[in-house]
Here is the input.
Amino acid sequence: MSKILVIDDEQGIREVLSGILEDESHEVFAVEDGIEGLQLLKTEPIDLVLLDVWLPNMGGIDVLKRIKTDYPETQVIIISGHGNIDLAVKAVKLGAFDFMEKPLSLEKVVTLVKNALEMEQLKKENRRLRNSMLDNDEILGDSSGMRRVREIIQQSAAVDSRVLITGENGTGKELVAREIHRRSRRAGGPFIEVNCAAIPDTLIESELFGHEKGAFTSAVGRRKGKFEMADHGSLFLDEVADMSLQAQAKVLRAIQEMKFERIGGEESLSVDVRLIAATNKDIQREIAEGRFREDLFFRLNVIPIHVPPLRERNNDLGILIDYFMEKFRTSPEVPLKRFDDESMQLLHSYEWPGNVRELKNFTERINIMTDEQVLTADLVRFFLGESTPRRRADDFEAYAEMGLSEARDSFEKRYIMQKLREHGHNISRTAQALGVYPSNLHGKIRKYGIKIEK
Here is the structure.
C-alpha cells in the first residue's frame, strides 16, 4: 500500500481523487493548502503528492520547490487548470513527475499515479543496490567469535532495536553495520554513515542535525543533517565515543524522541531512523572517566556485538587470505598466487595490529607488486615492512651514524608509516591514534614523502 497526499483547495477534487485512489488500494491524505501539506510530510512517509498548481497562502510552485528540497525521492504530479499549462510545464522542469489537466480523467489519474509510483519504487531499488555495492566484502570466518557475530546479526537485523558494535580498528565494524542494514526491512532506505572521530566538535551538531540559513557565519543556506538524510533507513555512528559530551546530550535527546531541531531553527523535525553505533574504545572505561554518558550507553547498547581482533581468530586467517588473494588477482587469466609453508607460518605468527584491514591492504599490495607465483617468507617480510614483529635491540645500530635531528626524523617517518598501515591509511584515524591534528599529519606525510595507499 502506497501513501499518497492530495493538496488541492477544491473539496470536490479532494473527494474525487481520494475515492479513485482508495479504490486502487492506496492510503490517501487530503489537505486544502500547501502549508498543511508540508506539515503532514514531516510526520508521514509519503510516496506520491498530487499537487494543485494554484493554491492559497503558498503557491503550488513554491510547495513543489520545498518538497524537492526536503524530500527529493518523493514523486509529485501537478494538477493544472486550462489557464495554468505554462505553470505546469515549469513545474515539470523543476522536478515534478508529470501534470494532469482539469477536468480530471479517471483513466489518466490511475495511469499517471501507477507510473509515478513505479518510478519511485525503481529509485528505492537503485538506492538499495547502491547500498549493497558500497562494501562488497563478506563477513568471513569459522571461529566461534565470528559465528557468534553472524548469529546476532541474523537475530537482530529484522527488528529496529539499536545496536552497539565494539572492536579494535580494522576488525570490520562498518561491515557488520552494513550487513545489519542489508538484512533489515529498511534495506530499501538509505544507509548513512557518520565518522564522529573525523568531525570537529564545532561541526558535529550541524553534521548530525543540519542547520538553517544564517545559523552561523558559514551557513549560507539550509542544510539537512545526517538524521534527516537517514529517515526510513539506518544511521551508523562510527567511533561514537569520540563525540563531545555536548553532542552526546543532543544525540541522547534525539534518539529518545526521534525529534530534533536544526541549528538556528525552531521547528521540531521527526524522523524514523534505526541507530547503529560503533566504537574502538573501552566504553566502560570512557564512562568511568567521565568522557561518555552512561545514559547514552544504555540507549545505544540494546544489542551489543563485539567483533574479535584477527589475532584472536587465527584459524580464520587462511579463509581470509584465500578470499583477498582471489579478490585482488590482477586478472582472471593470471594464475592465483600462493604462499609457501614458511610464509604461511610467518603470517600466522604475525599479530596483525591493523586487523583485517591490514591483511586486506597487504594482500592487495603483494598481488600488485610481485610477479612471483609462489610467495616466500622473505617477500612476506618485505611487504609487511616495518610492521613485521622482528624488532631486535640492535635496531638502534641503524641510527648510530646519524645526528640527533636525522635520527629523530628517521624514527618519526618509520613510526608514522607503521601507524598509517595499522589504520588502513585513514588519515583522520591515524591522526587520532598519534594524538595530532589531521593537518599536522598531512604536513609530516609531505615532509617525508610518504605514499598513501588508497
Q: What stands out?
A: The chain has four domains: 3-131, 134-306, 312-387, 393-448. The chain is about 45% helix and 15% strand. Residues 106-133 form the longest helix (28 residues). The radius of gyration is 28 Å.
